[in-house]
Specification:
The chain has about 325 residues and is mainly beta. It has 3 helices and 20 strands.
């Protein structure tokens, strides 16, 4: 089973975070849900631009706003049963199980890896400016999954009605059902640092999950051709190619979960870019809002797919006529 890779669709990210964290007069920060994408990466990079030694975070926006989960080529197996209506036409019902997985393509994997690496590098560089021991980490985990079942009703038209080699054409329709789930990518970023030895550390965690949703069962049309080669009047070989046409329905969904530990009395750190008056606030005080305090996101659709998925099946098998 050989699929194409449709990329049509529209993307949208969550809007800017609400103003928050007014610790230093004349500066502004925003309550963001994640540093990995959109307004969170923008806010960090606005502040980081004021420090030559702090690299920018590479936002995950391209992977969120584009089609990166695609069906991969794979084997298939199944069976067909046909009924000869006339010597020219036969009705056929087939059931096929496709082994090709849904995977995040190499471009998406590269973007995820770049964002993850930049998270750790950027925060370690920023916290290094205040001279305190720090540890910023980011761990990406990518899963691939999902197979397909095809149920097809078709009409075969024989181009010849006699002989040992019978070419034919196929037209039909059916249902595709996805089984086994869809891929996902999870990024878990954490930074921990203390202002003074022995003080309660500021510890914040940024968890982002990119996953996908598609219609479990959808209609498709099929066109194809092939040949039947009779070895005896009752059995032989059959070779054919079929193109399955269905709507491309794989959408990108985003979950973001910010969290922190709190302490009493606790402490707070603010990083300010004097040029643009933007600020980052890190705090373990329960009474002090930090920048990573935006609302959790669940199933936010960042990309709505469009276009046509075409999967070409190349099949060889034995048939028995009874």
């Amino acid at each position: 089973m050989l699929p194409n890779y449709p990329t049509g669709g529209t993307g949208a990210l969550p809007g800017p975070g609400a103003p928050c964290c007014s610790i230093v007069a004349g500066t502004s920060s925003r309550a963001i849900s994640s540093w990995y994408f959109g307004d969170g990466a923008l806010l960090f990079n606005q502040v980081a631009s004021g420090f030559s030694s702090v690299p920018a975070i590479v936002p995950l926006d391209l992977a969120l706003n584009h089609s990166v989960a695609q069906r991969q080529p794979g084997g298939s197996f199944g069976g067909r049963i046909s009924y000869d209506i006339t010597p020219r036409f036969a009705a056929e019902l087939s059931l096929d199980y496709g082994l090709g997985k849904m995977e995040i393509r190499s471009r998406g994997r590269t973007e995820i890896a770049a964002t993850s690496a930049s998270f750790a590098n950027s925060f370690n560089a920023l916290f290094g400016l205040i001279g305190s021991p720090s540890a910023a980490t980011s761990t990406p985990v990518i899963h691939s999954d999902g197979r397909q079942v095809f149920l097809t009703g078709a009409l075969n038209a024989n181009l010849l009605t006699s002989g040992k080699v019978i070419p034919y054409v196929t037209v039909g329709a059916g249902l595709i059902r996805d089984v086994g789930g869809l891929p996902s990518a999870t990024l878990v970023g954490n930074y921990t640092f203390s202002l003074t030895p022995g003080s309660d550390p500021i510890n914040e965690t940024d968890t982002l999950r990119l996953h996908y949703r598609a219609s479990d069962t959808r209609l498709f049309g099929v066109l194809g051709n092939g040949i039947k080669i009779y070895v005896t009047p009752h059995w032989g070989f059959r070779l054919d190619a079929r193109a399955h046409f269905s709507a491309n329905s794989v959408d990108n969904l985003l979950d973001a979960t910010p969290s922190r530990t709190t302490a009493s009395p606790g402490s707070a750190v603010i990083a300010v870019n004097p040029a643009n008056k933007t600020a980052l606030v890190f705090s373990n005080r329960a009474s002090t809002q930090n920048s990573l305090s935006g609302p959790a996101l669940a199933n936010f659709r960042t990309f709505t797919s469009s276009g046509t998925q075409i999967q070409v099946g190349l099949t060889a098998g034995l048939f028995w006529r009874f």
